[in-house]
Amino acid sequence: MYFGVIVSDYHGIVERTAIEKDSRIYEWEPLFYIKTSDGNTRVIHQGISGEIVSLEVSQGDKVVPGMVLAFVKEDLFVTASD
How many Å apart are CA 6 and CA 66, to the nearest integer? Predict the structure, then answer.
């Protein structure tokens, strides 16, 4: 079993989460929307697919680069890539 970690790339506030615990994610789909201090909204996505086993942040939480947002039980098979 492989676990992946989704981390923030930005300083800001979680504007919205597009996932829930136990939900399935697919490569490169939007996962979190982070509102940065300059007012821009940045999207967090990852090149992994699997099941969300833990959400570490909620809407309105402050985040910094490298902060863990969620843990994913990764699929053991390759999906699609471009």
Answer: 9
